Amino acid sequence: MSERTERLSVRKTYKLFIGGAFPRSESGRSYVVTSSKGDFLANAARASRKDARDAVSAARKAFSGWSGATAYNRGQILYRIAEMLEGRRTQFASEVADADGVSAKKAGELVDAAVDRLVWYAGWSDKIGAVLGSANPVAGPYFNLSSPEPTGVVAVVAPPAGPLLGLVSVIAPVIVTGNTCVVVASERAPLPAITLAEVLATSDLPGGVVNILTGSAAEIAPWLAGHMDVNGIDLTGADPELAVTCEELAAENLKRVLRPPADRVDWLADPGIGRMTAFLETKTVWHPIGI
Amino acid sequence: MFEYAPAPESRDIVDIRPSYGLFINGEWVEPQGEGRHKTVNPATEEVLAEVAWAGEADVDRAVQAAAKAFPVWSAMPGAERAKYLFRIARIIQERARELAVLETLDNGKPIRESRDVDLPLVAAHFFYYAGWADKLAYAGFGPDPRPLGVAGQVIPWNFPLLMLAWKIAPALACGNTVVLKPAETTPLTALAFADICRQADLPAGVVNIVTGAGETGAALVNHPGVDKVAFTGSTEVGRLIAGSLAGTRKKLTLELGGKAANIVFEDAPLDQAVEGIVNGIFFNQGHVCCAGSRLLVQESIAADLLEALKRRLGTLRLGDPLDKNTDIGAINSAEQLARIRELSEAGEAEGAERWSPACPIPERGYWFPPTVFTGVAQSHRIAREEIFGPVLSVLTFRTPAEAVEKANNTPYGLSAGVWTEKGSRMLWMASRLRAGVVWSNTFNRFDPASPFGGYKESGYGREGGRHGLEAYLAV
Questions:
Q1: Candidates 3.40.605.10, 3.30.390.50, 3.10.20.30, 3.30.200.20; correct CATH number of B19-256+459-472?
Q2: For residues B202 and B200, what is the distance between their CA atoms, to the nearest angstrom?
Q3: CA nearest B426: which of A122, A273, A143, A119?
Q4: pLDDT tens string A195-207
Q5: In a 3-state reduction of DSSP, which class is residue B225?
Q6: Which tens digit of pLDDT belongs to each residue from A154-180?
Q7: For the segment A1-23, what is each residue's pLDDT rounded down to a tens digit?
Q8: Which of 238-267 (B) contact A at CB < 8 A?
């Protein structure tokens, strides 16, 4: 018998996350993901136009159920995501450290902030309507009520930096109000996004509410920006040139566009409610009052 | 049907100048180019006045005037801005009759509507936003919300002065200055508004009015000195504007087309529903972006409802817009009339059945009788495209789910109507209709306190109410 050697680890295959499942790219393509130091980390799937279209149909399919769920229920599920993330703190800290080149301590803080961010948004689910809605005192015998409703399917170009905290900070405000989304993860650091997908898949989040694509944002985002069944697009992670291309394409069906921020974002700062309001519509219902 | 003697409103109250310049920096100025345009009374084809056609240089002048006025206007205490807006509201009330007649002459809408709907709403809108000017810190946009700068505003011809009010009142209340371009076929009330600004002693450059057509509008929205663009008009132009603003930091709000479903259930109060349908599609000759142009009626009552509707349409009076008895005025322009005719012919060609009441049409002017199409399929152009005229397409449904499916089967999402006596069903429907305004057991109600605007390709942003402030604040 030979000497017992150190056990060879079983590596994870990083795939896409579409409709609650983990398919490879239909294109069969992958690309090499390295750490901030340049070491090989994994081969990630390189999503294609077809994957983007599949993700949009999964998001559309999930929209009526998710937007029709009670705000309380959506809040519970976001909180559940936070719980699952907390449980994998060590794993995420290690992935974030690899991806961002930050210290283990800093990586842990970033994971903590991501968990806290989810908890913060979870609490908004059943409050945002009260803050943004209004009973309007019209000059006549009418009941008149305005309330926010989700925009629909939102494409999200996640920030290249902040592979976990940045990602959570753009996904949570979109879905907490009832939208469903297709996310293009950070091209350079996609691995925490796919690990986050594993968290989402085990948090009672209905399949299709969040779909995550890895690969080239410059290649995939324009397909999403021009897709006629996408209602809004968050260009936070797009470079200026890509952002212009996407905004022009988005005009075709009047998508709601959240432009990239003018200044560098501090993801640890208080996010405010702007990311939620960017993808909310106001519905006003009138009814006569009389006997 | 009762016989009515003609009861025309006198037009002596208005004093239309033969020719108008541009209103820039508080002065009437001549345009730099030669372009002029005649605006006509669509009911008679009589030329009312000649207006300037502003070119790029004129627009630039107007934007610069607005930019120069911005530091003063935005730094003024909100309570002072409010007083200017209250003044404007009061002057509009004082001159309401004159403005109503002018609107009817230039637009073709019945005096009953310009007098009883447009003008009261215009004054109310200025009153409403005047009150916000010193209360912005309480509006939910942070403790000290800032204005954006110069707003470039382009408005349509269907409610000329009302659309001006929807644009200018919130912009000024928030501390912005504006350059507004009225529609080329209906510039006169906007030009009269310039005079109101002078009567109110509004500081020069806070409001600038440039007249012209699409090119003037394009020059305005694409001007680098404009910080905010607000457009009301067709979805087609809205797309162009959204595309041309890509890569800029300009804030954009759009209020575009619609193809609203007016849904009538079998338990609806039939007579009220008929009045609502008529008001929904024949108000303002159907030149209403939120018009109830698709009637979805539950199959079980379709025959009865259509009979009652046709009976009611037989009593509508079409003719002289200045006559106080007139229900249906003139179509605003020859171009719009051609479009309504073209789509109506397509409706017949595609197999829908066309009906209009016996209705004498005046010899001069642009007119189109109230028209109802039955047997309309969802694929027909008259069920998909915005006609923007007095043309109703009737479809049927059996279940509430089918009604929702059909109502939402459009790229538009501006408004919808639901007629039922059952509260739970009304709310169930209202929550599923993808539209910015849902009128239940009523239709085409407007109020400055009530946010208005669309879902999907009907545009984005809201006008009216607290929500309407957001479009003019840096938030």
A1: 3.40.605.10
A2: 5
A3: A143
A4: 999 999 999 999 9
A5: coil
A6: 999 999 999 999 999 999 999 999 999
A7: 556 689 999 999 999 999 999 99
A8: 238-243, 245-247, 249, 254, 256
